[in-house]
Amino acid sequence: MGPSRTVLVTGASGQDGSYLCERLVAEGHDVHALHHPGSSSPSATLPESGAVTCHDGDLAHERGIRDLVLDVRPEEIYNLAGISSVARSWEEPVLTGTVTGLGAAAIFDSAWRLQESSELSVRVLQASSAEIFGSPATSPQDESTPVAPVSPYGAAKAYAHHLARAYRARGLHVATAILYNHESPRRPEQFVTRKITRTVAAIALGQADDLALGNLDAVRDWGWAPDYVDAMVRANRADDADDYVVATGAAHSVRDFVEAAFAAAGVADWERYVRVDPAFFRPADPTALIGDPSKARELLGWVPTTSFAEIVGAMVAQDLKELGS
After folding, report:
1. Domains of the chain, start order
2. What pLDDT is recorded for position 245?
């Protein structure tokens, strides 16, 4: 693991951020978390009180970000914050561009200025997204796949992805993890995967009658969030900063996810509980996003540890427990 470091995590109260902070605290690092005042309280998702120093702030406020970075003086930064819902990005495209795109610029520039004005060597991990590829012509995708987003979220992430490369060329150690869909029981309920497992659990318990969804044929590459956090740490600590696709390489449709969720809940004849609602279709929805993680496997020694069925089962089990209590 090496010596203790000062680490700054943005988006710390989210799914990935909470797992990342737990890991960093367990490794003995001095962990600082950027928390947006308008988001949920970090106390429910971060490690025990006092283990993480929380700072209220907003990625949209460049001066505040710069002051925080120069004050904390982190040796590692993980930029996980942003508008992370594609559906919400269509509702608030300007906010998405400001926070997810320009917010990354504020992080990179602040890290570069800290490095230039001190003896520190600063490493930055940018959480990129498979959505930067839009509707790719080939599958699976790798690091050389053309960046051609089809949503405001994908466009904002694409801007941050290109800028990471620009700052890398300027001498800042900026690695990007091009994250494909990844889940866990900590996934917020506004995401379709958690909507599925939560509603399926409610149906199994007699608390709901049906599950309304959009495109059941959309295909994604779903992984386990703690595995993807491990990939981000490995990428940030690698000798050379680079871009890495983080994925399982396995294709599953939304229909597959629904079927697995009902199976985990012990509900047979699942199709009679599901209805397709056109209101849930996205304006532009990539049909298949499947990643090739060969580079991460070969250069970082990273491999996914949890199967698709295990991921869905863990989410359903947590929802059954919460709703049953």
Report:
1. 6-182+224-246 (3.40.50.720), 188-220+251-289+306-324 (3.90.25.10)
2. 98
